[in-house]
């Protein structure tokens, strides 16, 4: 598969991935919008630059592992996996439909490149700890990455895993927290306090890096820094904008669990035009490209 | 008497029969397995001595993971190890796994088809003085409903040792349970054991007693007593709750016409239910269920509790009389 080293290429890929997400959700008629859209830059940076993986040999023993804990963000991971060559891009439009490999939440057994089945929140970091532990037992040099949503820090089991990784100083483990400040029922700090997130991780023995989750260079740099820190686990708190790239979705928790065409407010286009408007915004980079062909 | 092929100990029904807790078989099996297979890893949630996981820890400290009191995390650290080629054994009391962490067992273990071995300790009413909180009476039900899960209930320490080896050799999620109290060690290395198979321990024609766990011994005692009343009991040891040995069970229904099931578990969802579900669609016969009838246990000595909650030989004898009255002539 193609490793992208030019920032412009990575940005273009992230934009393509966002369009894939909108198209998938439109075809499916259900699913989560905000999280997948805000993770597009991180997912692109991981699959096209950071991860040492090969779509032609998805089970290579020394590959880097990415454990996605927040299974509801499936569309963004399906999109990057398809774009990275793990399965045909054509298949993306089958999301959530009967007979598809692309289940509403990711299934390891059906989708090439998916490292674990995920959905019930608060489970992925524990799995990542086990994967990292096995790498040490086998003296393999792979890095284990785990993407967590901010909402799943409500789960006690997430903190069990944070405590465990800190206690055993799992040095080849990197967590990326999608800090988008929303969860299904509202803003995160209103539903259940997450802050101070940095201090909480540090208190459990982690090294913490804060980044702008939409700055691909920062994502790549933070992952390099995390790999270099081998005496403790690293948490990268990636500040993101939910719904990033589609203006009527940005910052609005109501798009957490809803696809385009399902929510109507004073800020949105009519339901039947939301998909087209979203895709046009992405294609034109929010209107900055004015070529009439677009 | 006992079927020859069962190779049960001669002193099985005598007072001199050796007592050993089934958890001892777990510890021994783990150590044997550790010698054979470098991929075996054992996880423990702060109960190493009690579950006997300590036997493995002392021999292979580098492959033992102390999890602290984190059953949810433990279940999924095991999944991560399994996805990386290890054969992890998760050990704690069954009330905590699969009790506390059933969601992890369901999604990350079974839906994920992870090669995790769940070892449930302190099962049944015979846990004793710790009381209802620690007496796992629902674990078979919790695991048996999960697709891809194998469920085993060994009858003594030796069979538990065999189950540990079988767990490692069977791909996919695998639950087995064992108990705290010393119970008769009556099977031998020669006693046949295979996942998916039940064994005829005693042949008979009037009634079939199908049991799993240490209560199998009580079934043999009951069958021996019923001979005096001219009642011939077939006793089947059915450690493999899932997959069930449907052939042997169906044959028992056809040959004997009535069945008593026995287990230290809630009647709802246990071995008896599994047998009833199968026979209801193949060869329905009158049945009586020995087990917990929709209540919680309490503190007491194992023998007192088994008597009070009707899971001993006396209760099985009574159940046989009851079920025989329902027999179609």
Notes on the structure:
Chain A is of the alpha/beta class and 294 residues long. Chain A has one domain: Rossmann fold, CATH 3.40.50. Chain A has ten helices and seven strands. In chain A, helix 6 links the parallel strand 2 and strand 3. The mean pLDDT of chain A is 96. Chain B has 329 residues and is α/β, with parallel strands linked by helices. The model of chain B has no long low-confidence stretch (mean pLDDT 98). In chain B, helix 1 packs parallel to helix 7 and helix 8 packs across helix 12. Chain B has a seven-stranded mixed beta sheet with strand order 3-2-4-5-7-6-12, with helices on both faces. Chains A and B meet through helix 5 and helix 6 of A and helix 4 and helix 5 of B.
Architecture of the largest domain in chain B in CATH?
A: 3-Layer(aba) Sandwich
Shape, principal axes of CA atoms of chain A: globular
Radius of gyration of chain B: 19 Å
CATH class categorisation of chain A: Alpha Beta
Mean pLDDT of chain B comes to 98
Count, helices of chain A: 10
Largest sheet of chain B: 7 strands, mixed
Number of strands of chain A: 7
- Report the CATH superfamily of chain A: Thiamin diphosphate (ThDP)-binding fold, Pyr/PP domains
The secondary-structure class of chain B comes to alpha/beta
Classified by CATH, the class of the largest domain in chain B is: Alpha Beta
Strand tally of chain B is 14
Strands ordered across the widest β-sheet of chain B? 3-2-4-5-7-6-12
Order of helices and strands of chain A: HHHEHHEHEEEHHEHEH
Features:
heterodimer, A: alpha/beta, 10 helices, 37% helix, B: 329 residues, alpha/beta, Rossmann fold, globular
Brief overview:
Chain A is of the alpha/beta class and 294 residues long.
What is the topological layout?
The complex is a heterodimer of chains A (294) and B (329).
Chain A: H1 7-28, H2 34-38, H3 40-50, E1 65-68, H4 74-83, H5 124-137, E2 144-149, H6 156-167, E3 173-179, E4 182-183, E5 186-187, H7 188-191, H8 197-203, E6 207-212, H9 216-228, E7 234-239, H10 274-283
Parallel strand pairs in A: 1-2, 2-3, 3-7, 6-7
Antiparallel strand pairs in A: 4-5
Helix pairs in contact in A: 1-3, 1-4, 1-10, 3-4, 3-9, 5-6
Chain B: E1 19-21, H1 22-36, E2 40-44, H2 48-51, H3 54-59, E3 64-66, H4 71-83, E4 87-93, H5 102-111, E5 117-121, H6 139-144, E6 150-152, H7 157-169, E7 174-177, E8 182-184, E9 199-202, E10 207-211, H8 215-226, E11 233-237, E12 240-242, H9 246-256, E13 259-266, H10 271-282, E14 287-292, H11 302-308, H12 313-325
Helix pairs in contact in B: 1-7, 4-5, 8-12, 9-10
